[in-house]
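Re-running the complex after MR caught last week's input typo. The corrected sequence lines follow. Everything else is unchanged.
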Amino acid sequence: MEVIKDVQEMRRWSISFRQNKGSVGFVPTMGFLHEGHLSLMKAARERCDALVVSIFVNPTQFGPNEDLSQYPRDLERDLTLTRGVAADIVFFPDASQMYPPGFQTYVQVEELSQGLCGADRPTHFRGVATVVAKLFNQVLPDQAFFGEKDYQQLAVIKRMAKDLDMSVEVIGCPIVREPDGLAMSSRNVYLTTQGRKAALCLNRSIRKAQELVRSGNRQSSQILREVIKIIENEPLLQLIYAEIRHPDSLESLEQIVPRGVLLLAARVEKTRLIDNGYLPE
Amino acid sequence: MEVIKDVQEMRRWSISFRQNKGSVGFVPTMGFLHEGHLSLMKAARERCDALVVSIFVNPTQFGPNEDLSQYPRDLERDLTLTRGVAADIVFFPDASQMYPPGFQTYVQVEELSQGLCGADRPTHFRGVATVVAKLFNQVLPDQAFFGEKDYQQLAVIKRMAKDLDMSVEVIGCPIVREPDGLAMSSRNVYLTTQGRKAALCLNRSIRKAQELVRSGNRQSSQILREVIKIIENEPLLQLIYAEIRHPDSLESLEQIVPRGVLLLAARVEKTRLIDNGYLPE
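Corrected-run output:
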């Protein structure tokens, strides 16, 4: 496994690999890797000839009062984990190379960036789309793998790649959960034992919603009422949103026909957590 | 020469050419070609192994009250001209393939898109940057050629390519003028004989500015006063802006040290014309 820090060197490596050896699979991350990231790497490893993992805590996707400076980092541990899944390259660019003086170009996916997490993080998806566009042009992957936990992010990136005719296939992979059901997230380390226990109600409310749909209830408003009841019963949680949307367009659904996705965000102690689940046909 | 209308076919052609034969030079146009466009094609022809010319009147760079529907079009004549410079491919995509339903992603180059033409065309450069980003991803050129007549556009595209790490070299080529000095533009056909004669004062005022700088005057305000005097003397012209800017950053310059560029826009009859010239060291 090789660590590349220079953008030009990264591009040269990819061009050469693609010309001579085969396909490049790419997993962009902000580091502090967990089983969720590793599942993306394993998917890429299976489907592509090379695996490139980027680690870059992207400043442009954090709002002014968010946790950029506190975001957990542990490069040594990350390198051990990427070695464990036989990554070929860890791409670890420097912020000064990503955003040199004079930088001023942003990619905006308009409708999909609004609402849900975009409502209280107004520049977040612009920052995500911009850094992913840059990383795609630096790493030149055939396929790129993103987790479904960040559901709106995945929708934004798929739409961007399609709208701007990027020659990369964007692949979503299922949420990986802790044994107790909590969706894996680098931010879970912020939680106290009590907060962490309280956070489980997110997954519990998703399973309740799925049960209701399976038993024939297709009214979003009724299902959301049950979901909200479970979350509001937990004093340590503050609900940010609970919505049922179309799985691709993310349009609001009054009726879950044929499918939908339940999207949740809540604050637990000072930590913003998100989770989601498909509502079955 | 081959005409390609399909985006996927265009991409396949370029991938294959670059793998097997050599470099691809690209000249994006809105058609109704003139000597200015042909000079770009000749530059591309000299520097690259293949020449791809796109013809696409891009709706997203026109404002709601601009001349999209009236914009001059003549595909047969354009094909004759591109054959004349031995283009390999004319890429002629359809608006419904460029902007399918649900399209919502835009590329914005922030500071450089403001002021000058951006002042009265607030979404113009967003439309330009977006379509050029798409065309780059469709045509996959090694080098792309743009005229310096659209000076702010060239600055926006250079910045976009750099900021988003696009693997294409953006090359600016000098303005081509009619024998009487009028900068070539597809919109010149809108002018009456009188309007056309009046428009010559743009180039005349640029030459006056260059003379003043050559004779030692480096004060932008003084030079602009002379420029504006010449243009305001012409009753058929309505000045939109006259500014002296840094050639790369487009920042306003009080002193032309070491170099500057004089940028002009004016309305002649109903036609918006632009012109510019470097102010020498």
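None of the earlier attempt is carried over here. DSSP finds nine helices and ten strands in chain A. The mean pLDDT of chain A is 97.
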